[in-house]
Amino acid sequence: MAPAIPVVIEARGLGKIFSVERAPIVALQDISFAVPEGRFVSLVGPSGCGKSTLLQMLAGLVPSTTGEVLVDGAVVRRPIPEKISVMFQDATLLPWKRIAENIEFPLEIAGVPAAERHARAAGMLALVGLSEFAERYPHELSGGMRQRIAIARGLAPNPRILLMDEPFGALDEQTRIKMGHELLRIWAKTKKTIFFITHSLTEALFLSDIVLVMSHRPGRIVGVIDAALPRPRTYDIIGSAEFGAVRNRIWKLISQDDTEAGETGMASL
Amino acid sequence: MKPSVLAAQAAFVLFVIGAWEYGDAVGLFDPKILPPPSQVAVALKGLLQSASFLGDAADTIVRVIAAFLIGAPIALATGFVMGENLDVGRSLSPIFNLVLAVPQSIFLPIFVLVFGLGFTEKLIFGITHVFFVVAINAAAAVREVPHGQVLLARSFGAGRFKIYRSIYMPAMAPQVMTGLRLGIIFDIIGILLAEMYASRSGLGVLLLRWGESYAVDKLMAATVLISLVTILINELMRVFEHRIGRWRQAMA
Question: Is this complex's ipTM strictly greater than 0.95?
Fold first, then answer.
């Protein structure tokens, strides 16, 4: 991480405690990290370790119990759509709106005039290569296409940051790999800062500059991996010795943690 | 619908009317109890030109509409709160479902005792018929608003009002329409029942009177007329319901 690159997102000692049936559960504990401008940062960890909660705290959708999130040095207390767009695992397209209207939705909320909305939606559709589907409805598109539309919608307000919560988690392996390539292409073109959540080590490493490794119960950051593999990346890189070596390091961090996480997990229940 | 299906249905209806007319002509049916369709049609024409019949019809229509206009908004508001507030929903839903299971007609004598025989009694009886079914459907509609869509709108900076307008309203519309359609049908049932049970005016009391005095042609004419109007209302609302819920059928 070169010191010249400014930090856009910073998590400082974030913690989250849920009280379920009067017994508090420590979901997240003392999470601190920094995301530099324009970088692709992934967060990888087992299911149920609080990744989604963490992302929603970064987005200002859920308050943290301890600590704070800073975006451009300012504390986040509510969503800041002019800087951050969020993408969810389910594409969450609005089924009663046409594809173009779905992409315009964030602009509609922001009060952008109709003519400009249409123009920007058309531009975004072209970017994700789905212009001919503008007048279709979401149910007419495949799962992968719906996620591309969700990316287009997220980019429409021209935010600087994309927060992505396992966006390709529900897709089949082949589509998932294609979507990874597609996302890297769009990222290279738009130069956004991306914070990407996944439970796939391969996906995290293939996409990212930096991989944050998370444990569960309580969710903590157990490692920060500098994934300095050459770009542009193609699928071949996954078979390389270098890729395998880094992937093993991540795997060790996660599996080492498993034993103690199991104990603390039990204790907190 | 396919033209062949429509043709078959039209043929069936025509066959029944034809058989009915023929049965009367050859003496198969007693015209005092089952007058031929031609005679019913003449009676219907007479009714539609009779000021006193139209006055009774207007009374019934006013009662139905008034009960709906008062009952539906209260029910929508109640259902919305039940859907939004889990505690309210959990306490009221089972009660509402139990009330819906009881035939509301049995409460009619009590209503007459409490409210007398006038407009108020019929209005309130109609409102109780509208209320529960509309409220329960509205509550279910709120609960089915996907949480992910609300989160999405919030992440784009939508406030509470904008979320209600851009997510809740379209997501809830089809099921709310189902409730309203059932509500107006229940409303008509309730008002006609109250009129037949005890009333000084309205279509219900005419039906009862004509039945008791063997004015079968008028009875049949009014029955056919009310049936047609109710079917028309139901179908119009169903078409509307289908239109605003097209995206829902497409997803299933």
Answer: no
